[in-house]
Amino acid sequence: MGVDLRQVIAGILTLTMFVMLGNMIKRDHFDSVEEKFPGGATDVEFDSGKVTEHGLVTFAKSTNGPWIEDAQELKPCWSKSNFDEVEQSKGFVTFSLTNGPEYHISQIADAVVVARYLGATIVLPDIRGNKPGDERKFEEIYDVEKFVQSLDGVVKVVKYLPDDISIRDFAVVKVPNRVTEDHISKSIEQIFKRKGNIRLATYFPSVNMRKTAQKSSSDSVACLAMFGSLELQPDINEVVDSMIERLRTLSRKSGGRFISVDLRVEILEKKSCHGSGGGGAKTCYSAQEIALFLRKIGFDKDTAIYLTQSRWDDSLNVLKDIFPKTYTKESIMPEDKKTKFLQSEDSEFEKVIDFYMCSQSDVFVPAISGLFYANVAGKRIAAGKTQILVPADIPGSSASVTNHFSPYISKKNHLAYSCFC
User: Fold this and answer.
1) DSSP state at residue 34
2) Does residue 51 belong to any structural domain of this protein?
3) What is the top-level taxon of the source organism (predicted)?
4) Number of H helices, E strands in the chain
């Protein structure tokens, strides 16, 4: 019996149509369903308290990457109305903000805790860069009125010292980050009583912000100062907002979402960056390693990426080859703002812009370990932005994004501050 070629072709076409129809049904009724994975950002603990987000990690409906929906914004677990009134002394506490915004919020918290314990008045700090003579007024970076208002009823704040008091008469006191009341009582109080005024110099024995066994009644004061007092002054806030809007426009294919990566070439080139941290984990990752990491956990080539690197460097080309929509400040900042905010490679403006860009992005990837990572994580968790992905060398061609959540938001290793409920 002969075979009619026309019948064979018709059969093939019919079968092809059924396969196409099946794929369409699968996409419409299965692939569009939200994927939910167990684990991840379900428990968050800050020192003595626990923040529990019931349910599962929910991935966004949009494809082109393993984007996670923001969690519910957390409420602060402090209330100024619950703070006891402190008898004010005639003494003053002065200090400077140094080394960038990730240090500023810790320095503010320590100064507020010390001043409140002593009943002293805080003098609005200045801001000092890494170079001699690089000084700015507080109001050039932060909103003064909101700062003073946020601490009303907690500690008294003045903008300037009285004319009859000289800064040369102040005793300089070294203060460990996350200072405790016990330390203040033993090492600071007697100096303050003897001298009447002190100047604080905060040092950072460790950048570890995970849970500690020691608890203090000043924890809520530190949390208020850390997360409730510093806001950008309007001009800088406007620049940050415009850069975020620019990135969201460039990432329309990803639903307006973008990734921020703390990647600074000058740090990556240091010797300390070539070794490993505790437990064999690396302390920093190169542009190539970040590119491969993001690709293997499922981010699409159209994903927009913001780098904290100030100026483009040739070593970043490999990242841009895989993710063409990779940008630094100079490429997305409004032209009329560049003269003021990109005037030097070591600008305090640039540091603070990076900190707040990383705090507000949809995903944050810390290519460098340290206090920047820790304090950005704190601000993000407070805002419900819990997608913080720790890079790693991934064998093979792919990996689950849930395996790379930051330990600050995992069940077993919790953030150190009981600041939010």
Assistant:
1) P
2) no
3) Eukaryota
4) 14, 16
Confirm if 303 and 294 have CB atoms less than 8 A apart. yes
What count of residues does the chain have? Answer: 421
- The β-bridge partners of 226 are none
- Contact 179/215 with Cβ under 8 angstroms? no
Q: How many domains does the chain fold into?
A: 2
Residues whose CB is less than 8 angstroms from the CB of residue 365 and which lie 6 or more positions away in sequence, other chains included: 259, 260, 261, 262, 290, 293, 294, 388, 389, 390, 391
3-state secondary structure of 39: coil
At 310, phi and psi to the nearest 5?
A: -70, -50
DSSP codes, 307-339: E--SS--GGGHHHHHH-S-EE-HHHHS-HHHHH
| Residue 221 sits in the same domain as residue 239 | no
Q: Are strands 135-136 and 126-128 parallel, antiparallel or unpaired?
A: antiparallel
**Which residues lie below 8 Å from residue 92, measured CB to CB, with a gap of 6+?**
120, 121, 122, 123, 158, 161, 165, 170, 197, 198
The answer, yes or no, to whether residue 289 has pLDDT greater than 60, is yes
The answer, yes or no, to whether residue 52 has pLDDT greater than 50, is: no
Last residue of a domain, one of 229, 261, 286: 229
Reference 89, options 118, 123, 111; nearest CA is 118
- Encode pLDDT of 215-274 as tens digits: 566 888 888 898 889 999 999 999 999 999 999 999 988 899 999 999 999 888 876 676
Distance of CA 290 to the CA centre of its chain: 18
Quote the domain boundaries for residue 187: 80-229
| Residue 314, pLDDT score | 94
| Side-chain half-sphere exposure of 142, counting CA atoms within 13 A | 24
Tokens of 273: 């960056």
Cα separation, 377 vs 417, whole angstroms: 11
Under DSSP, is residue 284 helix (H, G, I), strand (E, B) or coil?
strand
- Residue 101 exposure: Cα atoms within 13 Å on the Cβ side: 25
Where does a domain end: 214, 229, 244? 229
For residue 413, the 8-state DSSP code is S
In one-letter notation, the amino acid at residue 204 is: F
Q: C-alpha angle 113/81/126, rounded to 5°? A: 35
Element holding 200 (H helix, E strand): strand 197-203
